[in-house]
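Worked problem 6 (solution included).
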Amino acid sequence: MRKDKNTAGRDKNTTINPFVRGAVTILGNEKHQSISIPLFAILLSLLAGAIVILFLGKNPIDSFISLLQGSGILPKAQYAAKKNMLTDFLSMINSLTPMIFAALAVAVALKTGLFNIGISGQMLVAGFAATVTVGYSNLPMAAALPLVLVVGIVFGGAVGALIGWLKHRFNINEVVSSIMLNYIFQYIISFFINSYYMNPVTRQSRQVSAAARLTLTDVELYGLKMDIPLGFILTIPVAFLVLFLLNKTRLGYELKIVGLNRKAAKYAGIKVGKSMVISMAISGALAGLAGVTLYLGTFASIQPRVLTSVGFDSIAVCLLGNAHPIGILFSSLLITIISKGGNYMSSMVGIPQEIAQVITGLILLFSACGAYIRYRVELAKENIGNGKLRIENNGEGGQK
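Solution. The predicted structure is:
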């Protein structure tokens, strides 16, 4: 009788919460965890954001809908003349383009075990070089647009390669060198803008020519006046190109091996220093694309003594996308939607605009807990397996 009671107690203790079992079923598949866990983290962050909005006395559903309306995902109740949902959506895509390139730049460096925190500086160098060499020229559009891209890639890649070479040659930490170079480029370029290229009215650099701009502005089509971001055409092909480079080429294999274990890579005959320089050069080239699509696309000018926040935000976007090129496409879209929709949410719902940044921060915070979520899922899987084993043994022989 005592044995039966003990057996019943053990059976009761091994009963699994159905919610835990459901979560393990959804999140426990290791093949899909790179997608399911970030999505689960985003869901948790949106729930946390909804709680914050409730504390402010507002309706979370209305707030989230206004975010989507402000970014052109959903239609607004009314629009200004020559504007509609399409024009809002294209404006959001215009802001999305440099974010994708910048996040891809972070991802390539991370795969090699490097942390490129100098994306903003590389964007600035590429944007300034393309501005003074092509943006202020009289070249026709057919020649100017390809040259803008080439100049951005070359100058951004050169700065990235310099950081990688400093790491290889003198073992200077890439975080330190890239931060210092950010400040150096920021103030040198500001000196040249203030001395030679300043617009006295806007207090920014003179606008680039329309032929060299990567965003077609105020295009009238079907009774609408819209901005068309030409650089966005390259984002998806470049993301798949980076994916192919990392997963299907010898170079990509070597970069990832160096990122996993530099000593083992060196023992295997891989030139670690060369790999770091190449990785940072590719990262810088992608940052250069981000720079020209921002400074010769979205803005058409450069504000002196200011580093764009896109370079820093891209680090978080890359981590949210699990440093995977396809994941980065979706994470960039999510963060840009929240950023662009914040103004409209503030005006329509009466929530401070900073709440959009709070929601973004919550998404990034929960996404940073992806490793912990994975650990808890694996622990729950183990507990479920042990519980089943004890129940089966108890049923067969009454023993553990």
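Discussion: DSSP finds 16 helices and four strands in the chain.
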